[in-house]
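Could you help me review a protein record that somebody else here produced? This is what I was given.
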Amino acid sequence: MDSQKLKQQNKIVLLIVALLVVAGLTIHQYFNYALQPVSPNNRASVTVTIPKGATDDEVGAILKKKRLVRSSYVFSYYLQTHKTSGIKAGQFTLDRSLTVPQITRQLQNSRAAKVR
């Protein structure tokens, strides 16, 4: 293999590695952004009803619809990687200034739920 072809292959490999690093950092930044409160200064209460047997994806969709999380996908992923106990069914009062970890803790706490 001649040195010109080897240099060209090295450039291509470096370009691919650089693109992967940039993509990884971008995804990481987005996840950090999506875990933050939707509205940090908004303390208005929002009532959410989690039905019995709801999946993580369904809970994420409910929270996204109520504008309590930025991304239902990030919420579901967070639950799958950080869940210490199941999401409880019931009615919860949450506000838009809560982070995803704070919302998760409240949804896992059966004392926070008003069972219907």
Q: What stands out?
A: The chain is about 55% helix and 10% strand.
